[in-house]
Amino acid sequence: MKSSEDNSQEILLAQSTAVSFYEKHKKIYIRDVQGRWTTWRWAFVWLTQILFFCTPWLTWNDRQAVLFHLVERKFYLFGLVLWPQDVFYLAVLLIISAYALFLFTAVAGRLFCGYACPQTVYSEIFMWVENKVEGDRSARMKLDKSALSGRKFRLKAIKHLIWLAISLWTGFTLVAYFTPVHELLVALPFGLSGWEFFWTFFYAGFCYMQAGFLREQVCKYMCPYARFQGVMFDPDTLVITYDPERGEPRGARKKTSDLSSLGDCVDCGLCVVVCPTGIDIRKGIQYECIGCGACIDACDPVMDKLGKPRGLIRYTTENALEKHFNAAEVLRHIMRPRIFLYSVILVLICVASAWSIATRVPLMVDVIRDRSTLSREADDGAIENVFNLKLMNTTEQARRYQISVEGLEGVSLAEQALVDVDSAENHEVTVIVRVPSGSGKSGANTIYFNIEAEDDDKIVVREKASFLMP
After folding, report:
1. pTM
2. CATH no. for residue 458?
3. For residue 30, what are the CA distances in angstroms to 108, 123, 157, 350?
4. Residues of the chain with pLDDT > 70: what percent?
5. What is the mean pLDDT of residues 204-226?
C-alpha cells in the first residue's frame, strides 16, 4: 500500500512534467534597422498605399476610373466596362493570379509576403507609428513593463487613436471601390447604407486588430500561404538563408580568445531582434520567414565592423549555398524546366485574355420568348411570335441599333426596329416576328436575330431563337 505522502509526491511529479501543447504568446519588440532591404520594403509600402488610396479618386469619362459598382452591377476599369455576363474574365483573372503565384514563389520565395502583402504593409505602418509615439525598442519594452501612469496612458491613447484613424480610412477606401467615392463623402457619417457602414467598420476592425495586435501571428498561424509554400520551393528557389559553413561555430569576440576556432557569426542576436516574425534565421529555412531581408540589413554592418565580407546572411538558393555557385551559376539553375513551363502558360493565358478583351463585341443581346403567347395567327393569315430582346451597350457611347431577322422564308418584323441605348446601359424591346402560314414546319423552327450598330458595322451580334408554328 502506498502512503498518502507517496501519492502526493507522484501527483507533484506528474504536474511538474506536464507538457503544454499551446505556446504562450510573447510580444515581439522589433528593433529598427536600416539598409538596402529596408529601403526596398518601404518603397513597396509607399507604392502599394499610393495605388490603394489614390485609385478611387481617379476619373475617366466623368466617372470613377476603377469601380466595382454593385448597384449598377458593372465593373468600370478605365475605358473597359464589364457586366455580370463577363464573369468569365474573373475566372481568367484568378487563373492568372494562381500561375503568377506559383511562378513567383518558385523563383523568388516569399518576397510577396515581405514586401507587398497587406498584412506586412500595414504591420510596418503600425510599427512605424508605435516607434514614433512610444520610442525605440528598449523604450517600448520599458514602457510596457512600467505601472500605469499619466504618461503611459497618454502615449498608448495617442498610438491607438492614430491606428484607428488609419484603419477607418482604409475601410472607407475599400468601400469606395464598390460605391462611388464622392457619394460616400456626401453620405458621411450617418447617410451610409447598412452594407457600406458594416464593411467600412468590419475591414477597419480587422486592419486594427491584425496590424496592431496579431501581426506575426497572422503569418505564422492564419495565413495558408505559409503552409503550402513548401511544395513550391526546391533547392534552386531564392530564399533568405544563413551560411552555417562560414558562420559556425558562433561566439563573441574577445581580445584574449583564440579567434581561429570561431566562425564569422559573433552571436550578437541582431538578426533575431529585427525579425518581424521573431525567428532565428540561423536555425535554417523556416515557414515563418516572410523573406523581408531585415536580418541581412542587421548582419551586414556587423560584418563590416569585423572586417569580414558581407553575406553571412544572404538571399540565395540552397544549392548555391551548398555548392558555392557564383552569380551566373545561380541564374542558370533558377531558369529550370518548371519555371519555363509556368512562364509559357502564364504568357499564353495573358495573351489570350488580352486578345479576347480587345476583340470582344461591345454589345450583348439576350432573346427571351414572350411566354404569354407562344404563337398567334394574324388577320392576314400570317403566324406571329413575340420576343423580348434585351440589348446591353457595353461601350461608353450612346448607340442606335438596327434589328433584323432571318432563317425562314418570308420571315420579317411586324415593324422596323431601331433601338437607342445609352452608354453603358441596357434596354429591353419587344418585337413581333411574322412568317407566312405556309413557311416552315409545325413546331419549332430556327431563326436568327441580327443586331447591328448604325455607326459601326463591326458591332454585330447574331442570336439564335426558335419560332413556333402551329
Report:
1. 0.83
2. 2.60.40.10
3. 25, 11, 21, 41
4. 94
5. 91
